Fold DUF2065 domain-containing protein.
Amino acid sequence: MGHSADISSWIALFMGLYALGAAVGEIRSPGSWAAMLDGFERNEALRFLTGIVVLALGATIYLVNPWDTSDWLSVIITIMGGGMALEGVLILAFGRPFLHFASKLFGKIDTVWALLSLVIGIVLICVALLRF
């Protein structure tokens, strides 16, 4: 278990691992993100469950991460948590239109998003490891 000063770093590490893993999955199997979003768009129960999980994870990150304006990583992680919580609410409230927009966005630029996710994942992992 880390100290409270390390919470932002731990969250950044695991978010980086998530982004890295998702990017590698998309690069290995191009179009999988678009297919996943298409499945979410068609399946009401999956949309609802996804909205609850994203809302819960975002709220947990937002509430657990310390807000310290002198620590840029703390501020970024807190904002990311709040953004995730908002995304979960949007999925619950406007699931089909919201995910339709996302699928159109991903469908046109799969490789660009995967490479961006790869870079973000590597940066988050490096930042986290440098702070321990």
